[in-house]
């Protein structure tokens, strides 16, 4: 397997595409979207460019693929950023032109359902960036979290090594975007525990692969964009779960099935994201939320014990559906130093 290559980065003043490759939520919830666009301009010095589907709910897979093609093919666009995730980007993948994207590599930022495109780009040998959506991270009420803002800035503009650190605070409780008062102040945060290490007796360095566990399960079920298990050998796996709050047993079953496929044992290290533990459908209190995270950790450890007992794991890394959020280079280099308890990524 050829190692993925890093595309050129934008510079302040450059134009960047803002796409909705999954859901056109900016069309019905414009406030966080407009806030995110303003911060792209004012705090990052970039000029966002929207496309036909960016604010259009119900766009067809072909229409969303056309936006992706237009953004990547335009030499004046220096990066592509997703507005938000969704739940059906898997239907867009068959309509993507592999040769067009391969010939026009751009940094792509997104996560959740946008893992579909990150996996697709990884298979083309293009490093992507897991994190940094317009509506959620850039459009965060009150202000961007400093930890999120710093990681996103480094990922957008540099190719340098970046050391991840545990967040001192974390939040999962959201307020309704339909209510303008939501944006008057920052979300409530709680003190956060540090990382928890497992089998931390070595140093692992490799290219990353993974993302949202539910989306990866869909890709595996559809056998879409998945290579033979042995081709993932030596890579660093990173996983996280969404606001749908999958039960611990479901997390175990997905990982079990990855194990049965021969996939789980290929990864010598796992970064497990701090699980989001609150949603409008399941508004867990602080105690129940912590129990949810503990049960998920136990489920992951159970699967590792059965299928990848030698894998080193780090739990509660602030990636994915977390606040704050660090960007993970998708297909980029990651160094997990269990002895020194350090994680360094290359943007």
From TrEMBL:
Domain LD-carboxypeptidase N-terminal: 16-131
LD-carboxypeptidase C-terminal domain: residues covered: 205-336
Record keywords: Hydrolase
Gene3D superfamilies per UniProt: Class I glutamine amidotransferase-like, LD-carboxypeptidase A C-terminal domain-like
Keyword Hydrolase: yes
PANTHER family (alphabetical): LD-CARBOXYPEPTIDASE C-TERMINAL DOMAIN-CONTAINING PROTEIN, MURAMOYLTETRAPEPTIDE CARBOXYPEPTIDASE
UniProt similarity note: Belongs to the peptidase S66 family.
Protein's name according to its UniProt entry: LD-carboxypeptidase
């Amino acid at each position: 397997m050829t190692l993925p290559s890093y595309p050129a980065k934008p510079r302040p003043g450059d134009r960047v595409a803002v796409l909705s490759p999954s859901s056109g939520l900016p069309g019905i919830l414009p406030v966080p979207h407009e806030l995110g666009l303003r911060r792209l301009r004012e705090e990052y010095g970039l000029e966002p460019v929207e496309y036909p589907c960016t604010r259009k709910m119900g766009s067809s897979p072909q229409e969303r693929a056309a936006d992706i093609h237009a953004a990547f093919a335009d030499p004046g666009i220096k990066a592509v950023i997703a507005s938000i995730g969704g739940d059906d980007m898997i239907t867009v993948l068959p309509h993507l032109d592999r040769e067009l994207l391969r010939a026009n590599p751009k940094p792509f930022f997104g996560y959740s359902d946008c893992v579909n495109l990150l996996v697709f780009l990884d298979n083309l040998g293009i490093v992507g960036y897991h994190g940094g959506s317009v509506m959620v991270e850039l459009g965060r009420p009150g202000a961007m979290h400093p930890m999120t803002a710093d990681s996103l800035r480094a990922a957008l503009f540099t190719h340098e090594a970046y050391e991840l650190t545990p967040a001192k605070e974390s939040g999962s409780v959201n307020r309704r975007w339909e209510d303008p008062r939501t944006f008057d102040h920052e979300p409530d945060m709680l003190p956060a525990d540090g990382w928890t290490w497992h089998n931390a007796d070595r140093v692992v360095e490799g290219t990353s692969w993974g993302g949202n566990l539910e989306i990866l399960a869909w890709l595996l079920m559809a056998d879409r964009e998945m290579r033979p298990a042995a081709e993932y050998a030596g890579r660093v796996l990173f996983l996280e779960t969404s606001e749908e709050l999958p039960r611990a047993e479901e997390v175990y079953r997905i990982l079990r099935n990855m194990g049965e496929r021969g996939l789980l044992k290929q990864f010598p290290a796992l970064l497990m994201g701090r699980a989001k533990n609150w949603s409008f459908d399941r508004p867990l209190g602080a105690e129940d939320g912590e129990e949810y995270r503990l049960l998920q950790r136990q489920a992951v450890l159970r699967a590792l014990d059965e299928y990848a007992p030698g894998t080193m794991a780090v739990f509660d890394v602030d990636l994915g559906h977390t606040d704050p959020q660090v960007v993970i280079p998708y297909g980029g280099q990651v160094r997990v130093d269990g002895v020194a308890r350090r994680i360094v990524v290359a943007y």
